[in-house]
């Protein structure tokens, strides 16, 4: 294959991957990123497409007590970039409040002469915020996943190119990326613990308010067996007690 | 909360011309209807229905916020069927390619629609239905788009419309909050329940929040009562299912 032909083939392949709106291939971006490095790679594709020089993915804690952004990964993965340190400090606090109530993207730009300073203000829907990182420009996309998780995908760069027509698509890709990340937990490599059908059944009933005695009666087991199933699940999920196991299983989507 | 705990965003918008003024501002139900009608036409669909799903133990119920379905269609289909459509596995989050439900081929989708229900929707002109998940901040809503002719809806435009809906509804938090589910818990109750869901015991939560164990227990009891749950595990599950924690 000649070099141009190879480049063309790669272009087609990447084009399909990068452009879910135009793609006719089912499952292109729906294919889940299973590990953090996968997710970093996917995020880099998005960054390349809008000509951003850096990126970061942050989580918003469901607890109102925690007012700051929790970093998940950034463009310096596995290290942590300086940008991330600013964003996860007090600079990001307003953005946490915003993300809880609104899905609108936010941008900032502190250098009036940069290309980003003309591109970003031209965007409909996106609102201006005070700079997250001093002397920089960037745009933050609020993202949400299945179990109420919420977070932000942030891109930095002085030459961000993001035409209005692409805004929705880029945001949609951030959504898809986040839902893949949200089912992972730091420290696990994305593998779902193998929990038997019976164990899941017990856990589901626990989530619906049944006690071990109720479950034993319902599934025609002894109370000890029901308890054993629940203990197994709790251990497999690396949880400390039943409540924790139920919460983890729901958040991972193991039970509905 | 509506006019902006994100205060400087709105105030800056007033001062500067270059702040990316929103494409539409929804201030009344009329605006919402106009916006959705236009969006429906843009993607090649005939009908829309915006719903919030209320979780009640293991049952879910649909609350319709806006729709141009004919009255009879809603009456005949019933809220349960609408809730099933919206929460089926076919309803996708933004960024995931949606799949339509072709009501003429309903037997293939037995779990979502029964044959009878599919036939009913078909007769009423909902021949192909797409269910999409929306996020307005942490609030989850659903929108159904349907067309009288399968294949009439442009998928690319549909995926764009999904994000557009999230944006437009974020501009109108009052409209959304008024009609959809309310978070019944107080801040303290929510915090306690969150820590319980993280596997903390009553004593640990008491230390974290700096109150006594009795106080923590009483917050949790209140939360359990508000959800009419039978124990802690169920209260935690209900709160996670409805996206409160």
Automatic annotation (TrEMBL), chain A:
This is Helix-turn-helix transcriptional regulator. Gene3D superfamilies: Winged helix-like DNA-binding domain superfamily/Winged helix DNA-binding domain. GO terms for biological process: regulation of DNA-templated transcription. GO terms for molecular function: DNA binding. InterPro entries: Sig_transdc_resp-reg_C-effctor, Tscrpt_reg_LuxR_C, WH-like_DNA-bd_sf. Residues 188-253 form the HTH luxR-type domain. Pfam families: GerE. Keywords: DNA-binding, Transcription, Transcription regulation.
């Amino acid at each position: 294959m000649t070099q141009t032909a190879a480049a063309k083939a790669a272009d087609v392949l990447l084009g399909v991957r990068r452009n879910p709106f135009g793609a006719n291939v089912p499952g292109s971006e729906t294919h889940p990123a299973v590990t953090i490095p996968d997710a970093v790679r996917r995020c880099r594709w998005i960054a390349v497409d809008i000509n951003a020089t850096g990126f970061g993915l942050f989580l918003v804690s469901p607890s109102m007590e925690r007012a700051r952004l929790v970093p998940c990964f950034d463009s310096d993965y596995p290290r942590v970039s300086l940008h991330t340190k600013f964003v996860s400090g007090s600079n990001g606090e307003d953005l946490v409040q915003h993300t809880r109530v609104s899905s609108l993207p936010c941008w900032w730009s502190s250098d009036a002469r940069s290309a980003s300073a003309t591109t970003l203000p031209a965007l409909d829907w996106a609102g201006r915020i005070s700079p997250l990182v001093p002397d920089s420009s960037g745009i933050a996309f609020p993202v949400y996943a299945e179990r109420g998780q919420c977070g932000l995908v942030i891109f930095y760069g002085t030459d961000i190119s993001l035409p209005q027509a692409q805004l929705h698509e880029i945001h949609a890709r951030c959504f898809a990326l986040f839902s893949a990340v949200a089912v992972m937990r730091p420290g696990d490599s994305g593998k779902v613990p193998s929990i038997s059908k019976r164990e899941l059944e017990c856990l589901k009933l626990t989530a619906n308010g049944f006690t071990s005695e109720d479950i034993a009666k319902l599934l025609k087991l002894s109370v000890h067996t029901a308890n054993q199933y629940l203990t197994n699940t709790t251990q497999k999920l690396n949880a400390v007690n039943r409540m924790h196991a139920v919460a983890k299983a729901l958040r991972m989507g193991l039970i509905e | 909360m509506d006019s902006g705990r994100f205060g400087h965003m709105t105030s800056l918008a007033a001062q500067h011309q270059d702040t990316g003024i929103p494409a539409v501002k929804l201030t009344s139900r009329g605006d919402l209807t106009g916006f959705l009608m236009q969006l429906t036409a843009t993607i090649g669909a005939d009908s829309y229905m915006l719903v919030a799903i209320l979780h009640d133990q293991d049952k879910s119920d649909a609350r319709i916020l806006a729709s141009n379905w004919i009255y009879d269609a809603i009456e005949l289909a019933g809220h349960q069927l609408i809730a099933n459509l919206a929460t089926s596995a076919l309803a996708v989050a933004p960024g995931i390619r949606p799949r339509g439900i072709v009501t003429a081929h309903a037997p293939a989708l037995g779990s979502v629609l029964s044959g009878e229900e599919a036939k009913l929707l078909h007769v009423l002109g909902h021949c192909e239905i797409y269910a999409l998940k929306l996020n307005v901040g942490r609030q989850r809503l659903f929108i159904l788009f349907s067309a009288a002719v399968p294949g009439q809806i442009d998928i690319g435009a549909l995926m764009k419309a999904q994000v557009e809906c999230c944006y437009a509804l974020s501009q109108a938090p009052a409209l959304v909050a008024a009609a959809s589910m309310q978070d019944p818990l107080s801040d303290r109750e929510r915090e306690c329940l969150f820590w319980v869901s993280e596997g903390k015991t009553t004593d640990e939560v008491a230390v974290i929040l700096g109150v006594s164990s009795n106080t923590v227990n009483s917050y949790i009891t209140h939360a359990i009562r508000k959800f009419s749950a039978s124990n802690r595990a169920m209260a935690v599950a209900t709160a996670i299912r409805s996206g409160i924690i």
